[in-house]
Amino acid sequence: MTIPAVTLNNGVQMPQIGLGTWPLKDHDAAPVMVTAIEAGYRHIDTAFRYGNQRGVGQGVRDSGIAREELFITSKLDGEFQGENRAIAGLDACLQQLQMDYVDLLLIHWPLPQRNDYVSTWKTFETLVASGKVRSIGVSNFTPAHLDHLLAETTICPATNQIQLSPRITRPDQVAYGRAHGIVTVSWSPLGQGSDLLSDPTLQAIAQKYGKTTAQVVLRWNIELGLVPIPKSSNPVRLVQNLDIFDFALTSAEIAAITALDTGAEKRVDSDVDGH
Which of 184, 211, 214, 208 shows the shortest CA–CA distance to 196? Predict the structure, then answer.
C-alpha cells in the first residue's frame, strides 16, 4: 500500500496518515507496532508522557523494517520546558526508543501560564543542528501562542498537532496553519468517546462508497490536507484505517461532514489542560 506524503516546511516528507499510540503502554505497544507496520503504517506518533516509547521502539525493531523507512514523532511535556531542558528530554526519548533520531519532535502543550514555550522552542532550534531530530513542531498551540512563538524565534514549526474531528473542526487554527506553512495533524480524529461514527450523514456517505464511517472521516481529513493519527490496536481496524485512498469525497460531502461541528463536543483548552 502506498500512502501519500505531505511535504513539511523544511522539505521533509511525512506520511499523511499515522498511528496514534496513546494509551498503549510498553507491554502492549510492541506487538501492535509489528501488526501496524505489517499493515502498511510508516508514521508512528508517541510521546515521553505516554510511557510506551520502549515498547514502540521494540516493536519497530521486531518488525524488521529499516528505521529510515519510518517517520517517528515524539513529544516533550512540561517536565522538559524551559531553557535547555529539552536537550535531556530528547536524549531520554531516544534512549527509550533505542533510536539515533526522531523525525519530528513536538512541544506537547504550550502551558502559557508558565511562559516557557518560547525558550523551549529556542532549545528545539538547536536540536535540529544536532542531527538527533529532523523536524520540530508543536502540539495544542492556538494562533495566539504561535504568533508569540514566531515573533521571538527563527524556525517556523513544521506541524501543529491539535484535537480535530468533524465534531471539532477548528477552522481558524487550520487556516492559520495553511497561511504559515504549518501542517495540521489531527489527534482523536474519530471523535473518541462521542457518537460521531454513528451519525446518519456519515452512515449515508459510507454506504455510498462501501466504506465504514471511520474511513469516511479519515478521508475527510485527507481531503482537507490534514494528517490524521487514529488510534487502534485492533488488527482489522488498523488495516481499515489505511484503506482510504481508493475513493474521494465530493465538495458537497466534505461540506456536509464539516457541518457536523455543532460546538457541543468537549474541546481541549490549551490554556488549562495538558501536562
Answer: 214
